[in-house]
């Protein structure tokens, strides 16, 4: 779908990979994948602004060509935009990458999550998840499960083999929104098989996601995530924002610094700023109109007018408690 030169241009001009990325790719593909994920996390957000800002009569399921066009711009998007484009890009630079399909727990439609797996020359298999609306910075070894990482504001994720053909991502103790699980210690967030999927196999779930608000949280409220650059973290530390106490953890929290991996997560009327150890700041809003200036500020790669259009579209829906609130 794209040439090596197009992929190279994207990696160097949009993701700003180091000049020697091609050497890294040849010598240590796994290191390259980690480098790709870290640069992606700060520069290309998970965001549903471009999806929600489309006028109702013009909403359609994206084509594979649409995914490529939006992917090359670096504006971000949801899982099909980010992960399927990543698959296309990694294939273009010579890696054995393929898309797989997953289902979110509590989602009204099955198969709405697109992910990427990369098989290295030694046969090892890694998930490169840059299209989840949650913070993650490293490839996940599918041959080394269970695999636990601490990266959700003090609550860990654990990837487990559920059955011979099914893998799942569990949230342990609580989730990004800060709520602890009542009566249980964990929750299955997403499950998937390891079978390669064609783009056409996402047609129905993406039609629902991009056009049908009753079956699409992304059309009803913001769901956005990215990591900050070090200078942005420094601005937060020196600015007017006072970081709140942690939520959901019991161990000692290391202090934040400009070198900390700090993410921002927006959901409904909340903006959460945190790192793998804690939710450092939680800001609540009374309306999307009030929230819009901060979305524009913290997601500067987005068109401000599109942010305003999306906020107007989300404002049509009543903000109610859903199953997602307890497992994110």
Search tags:
alpha+beta, eight-stranded antiparallel sheet, single chain, four-stranded antiparallel sheet, 328 residues, 11 helices
What is the average of the pLDDT values?
A: 92
Shape: globular
Helix content: 25-40%
- Count of DSSP strands: 12
| Radius of gyration from CA coordinates | 19 Å
Structural class: alpha+beta
Low-confidence stretches: 244-250
N-to-C SSE string, H for helix and E for strand? HHHHHHEEEEEEEEHEHEEEHHH
Main sheet makeup: 8 strands, antiparallel
Distance between the termini: 33 Å
The multimeric state of the shown protein is single chain
The number of helical elements comes to 11
Order of strands, widest sheet = 4-3-2-1-8-7-6-5
Beta-strand portion reads: 15-25%
Structure, explained:
The protein has 328 residues and is an alpha+beta fold. It has a domain at 219-327. Helices cover 32% and strands 21% of the residues. The chain has 11 helices and 12 strands. It has helices spanning 4-14, 21-27, 29-43, 49-52, 64-73, 79-92, 203-211, 230-238, 288-298, 304-314, 324-327, and strands at residues 96-104, 113-119, 125-127, 140-141, 147-152, 155-161, 167-172, 186-192, 223-227, 263-267, 270-274, 279-284. An 8-stranded antiparallel beta sheet has the order 4-3-2-1-8-7-6-5, covered by helices on one side. The chain has a 4-stranded antiparallel beta sheet with strand order 9-10-11-12. Strand 5 (147-152) and strand 6 (155-161) form a beta hairpin. It is globular. Residues 244-250 have low confidence and may be disordered. Its EC number is 2.3.1.5.
């Amino acid at each position: 779908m794209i040439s090596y030169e197009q992929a190279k241009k994207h990696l160097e001009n949009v993701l700003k990979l180091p000049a020697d990325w091609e050497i890294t790719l040849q010598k240590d593909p796994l290191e390259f994948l980690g480098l790709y994920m870290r640069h992606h996390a700060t520069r290309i957000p998970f965001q549903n602004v471009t999806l929600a800002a489309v006028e109702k009569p013009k909403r359609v399921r994206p084509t594979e060509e649409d995914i490529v066009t939006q992917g090359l711009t670096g504006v971000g998007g949801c899982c099909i935009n980010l992960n399927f484009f990543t698959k296309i890009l990694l294939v273009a630079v010579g890696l054995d990458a393929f898309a797989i399909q997953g289902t979110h727990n509590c989602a009204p439609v099955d198969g709405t999550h697109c992910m990427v797996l990369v098989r290295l020359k030694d046969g090892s298999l890694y998930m490169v998840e840059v299209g989840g609306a949650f913070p993650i910075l490293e490839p996940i070894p599918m041959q080394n499960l269970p695999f636990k990482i601490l990266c959700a504001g003090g609550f860990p994720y654990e990837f487990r083999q559920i059955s011979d053909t099914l893998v799942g991502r569990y949230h342990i103790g609580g989730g990004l929104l800060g709520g602890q699980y009542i009566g249980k210690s964990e929750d299955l967030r997403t499950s998937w098989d390891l079978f390669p999927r064609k783009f056409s196999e996402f047609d129905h779930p993406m039609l629902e996601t991009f056009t049908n608000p009753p079956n699409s949280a992304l059309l009803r409220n913001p769901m956005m995530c990215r990591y900050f650059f070090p200078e942005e973290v420094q601005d937060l530390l020196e600015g007017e924002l006072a970081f709140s106490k942690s939520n959901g953890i019991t161990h000692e929290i290391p202090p934040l610094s400009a070198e900390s991996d700090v993410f921002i997560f927006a959901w409904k009327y909340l903006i959460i700023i945190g790192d793998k150890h804690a939710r450092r700041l939680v800001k609540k809003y009374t309306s999307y109109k009030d929230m819009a200036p901060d979305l524009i500020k913290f997601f500067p790669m987005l068109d401000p007018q599109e942010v305003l259009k999306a906020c107007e579209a989300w404002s049509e829906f009543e903000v109610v408690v859903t199953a997602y609130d307890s497992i994110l």
